[in-house]
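Hi team, as promised in this morning's meeting, here are the two structures we talked about. I've kept the exact order from the run log so nobody has to guess. The first one is mostly here for context; it's the second one we should focus on when we meet again. Sequence first, then the predicted structure tokens.
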Amino acid sequence: MRLSPHPRVPRFAPLLAAAGLLAAALPLVSANAAAAAPADGHRPPKPSWHRCDAGQPASYECATIKVPLDYRRPEGRRIDLAISRIKTPDTAKRHGVMLMNPGGPGGTGLDLPLMMEESMPKEVRERYDLIGFDPRGVGRSSPVTCGLSEAEQNVDRAYRPETYASDVAWARTVADKCREKAGDVIPYITTRNTARDMDAIRAALGERTVSYVGYSYGTYLGAVYSQMFPQRTDRFVLDSGVDPERVWRGMIQVWATEAEPAFRRWARWTAERDGEYHLGTTAEAVSRTFWDLVARADRDPIELEGRKLTGDDIRSARGVFFYPATAAPMVSALKAAAESGPRPSGPSAAELMKALRPAGPAPDTGTAVFWSVVCGDTDAWPRDPEQYRRDAVKDERRYPLYGDMASNIKPCAFWERPREAVTPMKTRANVLTVQNEWDSQTPLVSGQGLHRSLKGSRMVLAMGGEGHGVYLADPRSCANAPVNAYLSTGRLPAEDVTCRTPAAGGERGAAPQPQRPLPLPFPAAPQRF
């Protein structure tokens, strides 16, 4: 998933090796043990593994299994599910398999074993065969398309009374195109069916249980799996949590509510560094400078890096304010462009453009799957366009940075009714949730909601942590050690853990330079969890 609008977020963050803890000796789970049948009652044949690519290590293997499109009709149409693996280098210490999901909905995950193998400490890595997969509908897993144009993939639509009719038309067009192009498949691209696919992978591998690391949307997928298949849930790490009580409209609206405290924090941070950024000596002055730029750009778009930016374009970059050391030079570059006219503005200007929009058109597979899941998981979306209008007007006043965009009409208003009810979180789940304090896509209140919903879970909260994704995403994160301990021993912390991650770059707060960005295949649009 592409987590625009923050330039660090779309690449997730560097996955770097973290210091691990000594692993305790554990009883082994044989890969050849008799496994429970998957959700459709049919044990699939063993995967036919082959080298994924001649340019990749021979240990990185791929296969394709067949799963039902509709698990209620297991003998009916079947679709491809692409899976990958890198086996543990130490079979004597093997605990089992670890499935992984990078987020989305609409993100591919086939190459995650390569990323995680390089990043995990030895004490964790030797415990697992690492298993990646492209969720149904994306990548190599029977990909779907709605035939959407680049403009139709843009979800950041500011509310204006005079343009609301075109917003409604856009939402209806997206829903209609998806029905026309893939209406026989899209109703079955849901979180519950993807959880069933995970269980089919487990059965195909001959395992009784699975362990799992899921980021962002992957936390909700893991939570749903833990409720549908509690006896098959082993060591689960749910990193950067989606609140089950907010799926899915509330998860988009939380981008607006939580952008406001992040913006205030940025304004305070920037005011303390006025000698460098020249945006104001107080938080109020910095805020006024920003909103003056927005108003100016609405009257007369500001040209930067060859593109004219409106005030709405600038507001759509709300996620960047969770990262003050990145946001301040960007706004400074924008101010310089407004005062001096178009000119090369250096790396800050280029980073701002990346934050606002990815370069070039992108296929719509990720977007098609995003809406399939977000609209198809729950029937909680309003069906009356007037409800969206009222909410957008109200939230524009309450949350000026992004409130109208978050609450404006979405294609779900015209989507087919879901085939299943949303998954209740009633079964005890002894899983570990992980959260940064400052996360633009799944903010702290969302992560706390996930922890609260999963009875029996423990939470590791990295105070001061910035970024979407915690475990292994930042080598400085105080969350790495307790996660490593859990994955290597299977023992949850006795109580929730709150720790503090040191400020990036020390007191000055300069953003760290990533040594190796994790090339997660984030779709181009819309913004993702």
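And here is the second protein, the one for discussion:
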Amino acid sequence: MADSRRTPRPSPGEQEGAGMAVAVLIVGGGPVGLVARALLERWGVRTLLVERHGELPPFPRSRLVNVRSMEIFRQLGLAERITAAAFAPEYGRIRFRDTLCDHDFATAAMVGINAPVPESPALGVATSQDRLEPTLLAAAHAPVRFGVELVGLAEEPEGVVASLVDHRSGAESRVRARYVIAADGANSTVRQRLAIGTTGPGAMGGFTTVVFDADLDRWCAGRPAGVYFTAHGLFAPLYPEGGWAWFVPTPDDAAGADADWSDRVSRALGPDSGVRADVLRVQHWVMNAFVAERFRHGRILLAGDAAHAIPIVGGLGMNAGIADAHNLCWKLAGVLHGWAGPRLLETYGTERQPVAHRTLRQAVANTRLMLDVQDRRRAQLRTGGAAAARVELPWSERYFAQLGLVLGVAYRSGAVLTEAGTQPAPSEPSEPSGTGTGTGTGTGTGTGTDYVPTAEPGHRMPHLWLAPGRSTLDACGEWFTLLTPDPAHWEQQTTGHWPLRIEPLPEEYAGLCGLGPHGALLIRPDGHIGARWRDRAPGDSALHRAVAAITGSAPSGPPGT
């Protein structure tokens, strides 16, 4: 089988500075850009990442790493480090209070974060983005240039020329890249320069994040949570060792330098708290909600917030961006290494844009439900309800798992084949699985809440234990994986030049995956099922032709039957 792991080597004349040439230029040093850098390095793709800020931002921003992102971090060997720096599982809970100093009037678990779920080998965590990003930065050795901003783009037949300016020195330089990943945020310079429009509500209002220190243990230590929703804003612990953030709609009179944020935080904590907040940083920002009209412009591809800005409720935005990178990077690697055709990149937008639209709808629904909780509480208090009374939440206990959206996405594109393993599946919206009758047959659109594992093509490979501590998802990497109860039968197949490994699937799982004793699942490098043969291969070149069809490359082996 071909080996996909290659050491990145500079092309003749490559050097940092003016005239540098790389395979992929990554614009934006947030989690999505950093994950793309780490993934591409594992594929042996030479990259340069540029970030206009002078360092990693010190603000917490995103708060949750869901189970699917942790599966990706597990593949990168980062899951243990991320978990070690994150909050303990008991913080995987939301609490609703009138003020932070009051008792809970409602609470909900963040399923998949507060305790393991059988559908995944990984456990999500509550952590702050500024605690996550240094780990992602250290995950690769490819060059990163902070304080460098992209100021121009010019497309050429064989690549893109990017004009950069270094804000520290004022020096200007150019970089030639075969492809560009624009992960430069909701206000993406790249998206705007390409005149790519967006759909959706757009700017939803101004918000302020206040980072502060205060001793709140008497109200929170015995009732931990990742998020406390109150009538006076959202409070969140930042790090296991201390620190807090207050998220609130920006007050009309907050723009001036004289704003007393310490007093504002103290009053928001509760009139009887007696706590004086030590404010460390204040950031004003705009909550956006949109999806880009397209995710690709020639050799330039949008990812993360540049492609879709998702409201914060539910913790979906960053995780959707990480999934973008996971979908895109193996395709870029295949094209750059020559085992995939350029048309494979067309499937990136086909697969990820519908997911972005659904994620945006889910985040809007989350926001409405949160507002509904506050409305129910106000109505309860107006009608004379006791302050200690509970409010019935307008969702099931599993709502915040959102596993139908997180784990149940099904791709429909030319990179997914039908059951026969020979023809591309129709290009339909990528939908999460919802209800179904079992692991091998579950389908549907669902609500985003429920997830029914299925081994149908297009879906993420269900998590099954191959050995103690080793999941079917751990069999995936910088290669295609063929899982089969009969490896000897499939080892006779011609496979060409693609990176591919054949792994035995325990016989007890064959039926769960809809396979006969000689069947097989072809798993793409991103963990999604590319093809399924329920039983024997239809000819000696069936596997060869399937991988050729998925990767958009011309079959070079013997003709099939």
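Starting points for discussion:
The chain has 13 helices and 26 strands.
Confidence is low (pLDDT under 50) at residues 1-18, 433-447, 556-561.
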